[in-house]
What does this fold into?
Amino acid sequence: MFTPVTGRSVIVTGGTKGIGKGIAKVFADAGGKVLIVGRDPLVAEAAAVDLSKHGTVTWTAANICAEEDCERVARIAVEQHGGVDVLCANAGIFPEAPLATITAEDIDEVLATNLKGTILSVRACLSELARSEHGRVIVTSSITGPITGFPGWSHYAASKAGQVGFVRTAAIELAGHGITINAILPGNIVTEGLTGLGDDYRRQMEASIPMKRLGSVDDVGNVALFLATDEAGYITGQTIVVDGGQVLPESLQAIPAG
Ligand code: NAP
It folds into this structure.
């Protein structure tokens, strides 16, 4: 049995939809006091109302690309929930942009959100995480970039591999403050963002997963919760793949039919 995380203050960036909303739900169910963050205030408020069935969930609208927004998010967590014990740096975007036609703006937008936004979110919470006796950072990276590739998402893959590079060095800097930082590498998880990629994409992905199903947001949320427990306190700078075995087959022929 793991030590409960009851009463701990948890920030989930991108907690208003998809994987982040799933992470927020799991922490709320576990008794955490959760602050969810997204740019759209209407979506954020509706998500917080929905998640309130599970426990204490508040919201704020903020853009993680902006330093002042990240700092404001940390202040709100302190005001509303008494500090920051866990930061789930999850917000991210994945627009398609083939390499032959990718623009400088496409690259800037993805790197600013997924990579710079992650680093700024972590920096803004550092003093509060250090004050906590259970400081934890959990970054949502991806299999795309650190392990696999997918045509059309080279800038995204670079941003996600960049997050893992960040986690490894940050882990060394944060260890002395009692803070751990790890990354979850999801495969294909059913979310609003993924649904936007279309049915063909979904069918293609299901065929490439040994477990023959896409992941659920709970599959990722439960791993985030584990990484936040006291019992996971000696794990830092690591990556955990949550993908139903998707990265394992050498080819589609390696996956048994049915
Ligand atoms: P999603 O359903 O599109 O949700 C993305 C969340 O991030 C939303 O809450 C969105 O809210 C927020 N967000 C985006 N840009 C933001 C910004 N600049 N500032 C603040 N919030 C921002 O996406 P998802 O599928 O759950 O993906 C979440 C994370 O998991 C991403 O980092 C993604 O790369 C990673 N991931 C997803 C999958 C998958 O299969 N779904 C697989 C591997 C990795 P607003 O739009 O209102 O800002």
Summary: The chain has a mean pLDDT of 96. The first strand starts at residue 9 and ends at 13. The first helix runs from residue 18 to 29.
